[in-house]
Design goal:
CATH class of the largest domain: Alpha Beta
Family: Belongs to the class-II aminoacyl-tRNA synthetase family. Type 1 subfamily.
Keywords: Aminoacyl-tRNA synthetase, ATP-binding, Ligase, Nucleotide-binding, Protein biosynthesis
Largest sheet: 8 strands, mixed
Strand order of the largest sheet: 7-10-11-22-21-20-17-12
Structural class: alpha+beta
Organism: Talaromyces proteolyticus
Distance between the termini: 57 Å
GO molecular function, one term: ATP binding
Oligomer: single chain
Protein name: Aspartyl-tRNA synthetase
CATH architecture of the largest domain: 2-Layer Sandwich
Number of domains: 3
Radius of gyration: 33 Å
CATH topology of the largest domain: BirA Bifunctional Protein, domain 2
């Protein structure tokens, strides 16, 4: 229907006024977006949360003509021509004299005269650039001069043989195409890059401007592409198995269940009800096994409300898989196949042939003080309390009858004075404070010196010093470290001496006392305890037995003998669990699952002594297992961590497009955001004082 023509009078004037205000509001919105882009590295970057304190936007833009100008400029970016060639196509298929259209980002322009300019354009992948000559077309030349560097453009021009270089200093991370150049015929500006943003490969933008860091840092963009390639290879390898794995998505809106980690809750408008974001797809994938799905996988988004560190995010991706009628051996074989394919395809490096090495939890903890040891640099831990004099043990620990262990740090320069200086600096630093303040006693430090009596081991006494030399085989200048601990079974992921071993090694590498280890050393850590003493800092499963599942409560006992221990000595039972570790990083963990509903309920009720209300949270799983669920096993690889290890990155943030900070915040978008009273009321919530 056509609108009626406006008549003069109050109604017509009001309509015109309303239209004018609408145009002004559009202009204000556009102007605000322009202001948000004006970020200068030469001054403090603006905090966008302060925009609320600005004057009303209608005071910043008053002209309908300005609105028309903005919309007119926008039209040229709506109807821009399609590219005829990529930059690679130009090299392979374009001939001198061909007219081409390319898309990309303008570089900094060099004006040789009023009518002659040179500028390089970088392709959409930001990997290559080519030189543009502007001289022939007056209109195009003026348009070029009005466009700022780093702006996205479409260019039409004629290919010609390159005549020379402008001598402009180019970004070292972008490959120049020097065999061709393009004579500019027309240019379409597609958006404007603000002139007051300084962007170079060396610019480090704060987390609020992650998009600018991604744009300026090629290594970040390449990490994301590498991640995409790795995902494709994993998918192909799993789907090429016989029988193939099926990729199946499981829900993200789950329910709160006591698996072992803290959850994120999602309130609903239904009073008193909330979803929980999944810690993992564990229960869903076990239900899939009961559903007759033989092999499942997915790149699953998981959420855990836990303390953060360099290799941990509140939301993360894991390569999750499960196999029916399978054992842990079957799962480990599949994962080794995937790992070999990833390393050989993307890193041109294949792990050593044959099955990956295996180390039991007990051996890993006793030899390296960690359940995810980096075995490349040696420094194995040895128990020594049985050879040490009692007075020496009493000097290094207040414990009665402790276990005393030691390791040797080889120092390649064989200079005791440098070794002593190194260890003194470390223990006096903040990094050494936690080891000095160990309530079980600080480390005992000895520098092996062939020029001193008993080679610097006088406190050991003659006999003990001789035995220590036989066991540790130190060289001149090596460091010997002793540490006492309680005489109790291993629990948790590391011992104080294991932590000190790792910290001293990397400090020695930084201090040029040791060479950094190279290569990738894969191993499986197996035979974990099925249950561990409850950690008061972790939610566990909320049982009253003082025990929690070491990994999760669905893990099966390793053997028939371990099944027998469930009711007599559950703390001694071994789990059929396996962790994949490389270079001191846990890539993932898996297990054979309890597939019998009756046994699963025994673990909940009799072993963990969970209250009936908490057991009821798992009723869906128990019902699925009761329906003749077959034996099954699976694993989850931390995909973010896997990519970081492959690329040698210290933090998973370097392989995630939009990571959270150490406080779990996305400061770019401002999440988590404060809930208003109105929003709280919508979900029947209120804040406690």
């Amino acid at each position: 229907m056509l609108a009626a023509p406006l008549r003069r009078g109050s109604f017509g004037l009001q309509t015109i006024a309303l239209a004018r205000r609408s145009y002004i509001e559009i202009a204000n919105l556009l102007h605000e977006r322009q202001l948000r882009g004006k970020i200068s590295q030469s001054r403090t970057l603006p905090n966008r949360r302060n925009y609320h304190s600005r004057p009303p936007l209608r005071q910043q833009c008053r002209s309908i003509e300005e609105v028309s100008t903005v919309l007119g400029q926008y039209k040229s970016s709506v109807e821009f021509p399609s590219a005829t060639h990529s930059f690679t196509d130009l090299l392979q298929n374009a001939n001198s004299g061909d007219t081409v259209i390319i898309h990309g980002y303008l570089g900094h322009r060099a004006d040789l005269s009023k009518k002659l300019s040179f500028v390089r354009i970088t392709d959409t992948t930001m990997r290559q650039n080519i030189q543009i000559i502007s001289s022939a077309k007056e209109n195009a030349h003026q348009k070029l001069k009005s466009i700022s560097a780093n702006s996205p453009v479409a260019i039409r021009g004629t290919i010609q043989t390159k005549k020379g270089s402008t001598g402009e200093k180019e970004r070292s991370d972008i490959e120049k195409i020097d065999s061709l150049e393009i004579q500019l015929e027309d240019i379409w500006p597609l958006n404007e890059f603000p002139k007051d943003i300084i962007m170079t490969p060396e610019t480090v933008f704060p987390a609020e401007y992650r998009y600018l860091q991604l744009r300026s840092d090629r290594s970040l963009r390449e990490a994301l592409q590498f991640r995409s390639n790795a995902r494709r290879i994993c998918r192909e390898e799993l789907e090429n198995c016989s029988p193939p794995f099926a990729e199946i998505e499981t829900p993200l809106l789950f329910k709160s269940t006591p698996e072992g980690a803290r959850e994120f809750l999602v309130p609903t408008r239904r009073k008193g009800f909330a979803y929980a974001l999944p810690q993992s797809p564990q229960q869903y994938k076990q239900i899939l096994m009961a559903s007759g799905i033989p092999r499942y996988y997915q790149f699953a988004r998981c959420f855990r409300d836990e303390d953060l560190r360099a290799d941990r995010q509140p939301e993360f991706t894991q390569l999750d898989l499960e196999m029916s009628f399978a054992t842990g051996e079957d799962v480990m074989t599949i994962i080794e196949r995937v790992i070999r394919k990833l390393w050989s395809t993307l890193l041109d490096e294949t792990p050593a042939s044959g099955p990956f090495k295996r180390l039991s939890y007990q051996d890993a903890m006793s030899r390296f003080g960690s359940d995810k040891p980096d075995t490349r640099f040696g420094m194995e831990i040895t128990r020594l309390d049985y050879v040490l004099p009692i007075d020496l043990v009493q000097k290094i620990s207040p414990l009665t009858s402790p276990i005393v262990e030691a390791f040797k740090l080889p120092c390649e320069e064989n200079d005791p004075a440098k070794t002593l200086d190194f260890i003194t600096r470390f223990l006096d630093s903040p990094a050494g404070a936690a080891f000095n303040n160990n309530p079980d006693g600080g480390p005992g430090i000895f520098v092996y010196d062939a020029k001193k009596p008993l080679h610097g081991l006088m406190p050991f006494g003659f006999e003990a010093a001789e035995r220590v030399e036989e066991i540790l085989e130190p060289d001149h200048g090596d460091l010997i470290v002793l540490q006492a601990r309680k005489n109790v079974p291993f629990a948790g992921g590391s011992t104080p001496l294991g932590d000190l071993r790792k910290a001293l090694h990397w400090e020695a590498v930084k201090s040029d006392i040791k060479d950094a280890p190279t290569g990738f050393d894969f191993l499986w850590i197996v035979d974990f305890p099925l249950f561990s003493p409850t950690n008061e800092n972790e939610p566990g499963q909320g049982g009253a037995a003082g025990l929690s599942s070491t990994h999760h409560p669905f893990t099966a006992p390793k053997s028939a003998a371990d099944v027998d221990l469930l009711l007599t000595d559950p703390a001694a039972a071994v789990a059929d669990h396996y962790d994949l570790v490389v270079n001191g990083v846990e890539l993932g963990g898996g297990s054979r699952r309890i597939h019998d509903a009756r046994v699963q309920e025994i673990v909940f009720r009799e072993i963990l002594q969970m209250p009936a209300s908490r057991i009821a949270d798992f009723s869906h799983l128990l019902e699925a297992l009761r329906a003749g669920c077959p034996p099954h096993a699976g694993i989850a690889l931390g995909f973010d961590r896997l990519i970081a290890v492959m690329l040698g990155k210290e933090s998973v943030r370097d392989v995630i497009a939009f990571p959270k900070t150490g406080k779990g915040e996305d400061v770019m978008v401002g999440s988590p955001s404060e809930m208003s009273e109105e929003l709280l009321a919508t979900y029947h919530l209120r804040l406690r004082q």
